[in-house]
Amino acid sequence: MHQIPRSALILGLAGVLPFAWGALTLLWDGLAQWGLQTLGPRFVGPYVQLFYGAVILSFMSGVLWGFATRAEGDRAALGYGLSVIPALWAFFTTGGGPDSAGLSLIAGFVGLLALDWQFWRWRLAPRWWLALRLLLTALVVLCLGIGVLI
User: Fold this and answer.
1) Where are the membrane-spanning stretches (predicted)?
2) Which residues of 84-106 are buried (b: 16+ CB within 10 A; e: fewer)?
3) What is the 3-state secondary structure (H, E, C) of 105-129?
4) Which residues lie below 8 Å from residue 105, measured CB to CB, with a gap of 6+?
5) How far apart are CA 141 and CA 19, in angstroms?
6) Rg over CA atoms, the chain
7) Residue 2: which region, alpha, beta or left (left: phi > 0; alpha: psi -120 to 50)?
8) How far apart are CA 3 and CA 18, in angstroms?
9) Nearest to residue 141, comparing CAs of 41, 32, 20, 24?
10) Total domain count for the chain?
11) Is residue 1 part of a domain?
């Protein structure tokens, strides 16, 4: 694997911030109270994590779709089919309450990592892609895990 471009790393890590914020507001009551008063209930605790997680899985479907455009024939068709799975997963599995939805998102991000690996293996993703996705997935799963366990 090659070095992750600085801009991709910074933007990727910035994309983890809502997950981390949700986890922090679960761990510190004062921060949660400040967030409730300042931002509203949708932007604290598991609620920000779950809503944002569904958005990110959908976004990642678009990224994978873009990778699929680099393929041809049957591989392209398979790539397009695989690329819609994260968005559909988020849509169909995140409605059962915060714990259930959090576990579903964790499974969704782990499954997304498997798709990332496949697109990387097919050389449709940049060489550094898997290194970035491993890091970001670990951080996201950690933050969502706090949301499920607390």
Assistant:
1) 46-65, 77-95, 101-119, 131-149
2) ebbbebbeebbeeeeeebbbbbb
3) HHHHHHHHHHHHHHHHHCCCCCCCH
4) 49, 50, 53, 54, 57, 90, 93, 94, 144
5) 9
6) 16
7) beta
8) 25
9) 20
10) 1
11) no
Distances, alpha carbon 143 to alpha carbons 8, 19, 45, 54, 103, in Å: 20, 6, 10, 14, 12
The size of the chain, in residues, is 150
The pLDDT profile of the chain, 150 residues, written as one tens digit per residue, is 579 999 999 999 999 999 999 999 999 999 999 999 999 999 999 999 999 999 999 999 999 999 999 999 999 999 999 999 999 999 999 988 899 999 999 999 999 999 999 999 999 999 999 999 999 999 999 999 999 998
- Tracing tokens 């041809």 back to the chain, one arrives at 72
99 in Cβ contact with 47 (< 8 Å): no
Return d(Cα 88, Cα 139) in angstroms, integer: 22
Supply the range of the domain harboring residue 145.
6-149
The answer to whether 107 and 114 have CB atoms below 8 angstroms apart is no
Residue 86: inside a domain: yes
Please give the Cα distance from 23 to 37 (Å, whole number). 17
Say how far apart CA 140 and CA 68 lie, in whole Å.
24
Amino acid at 98: P
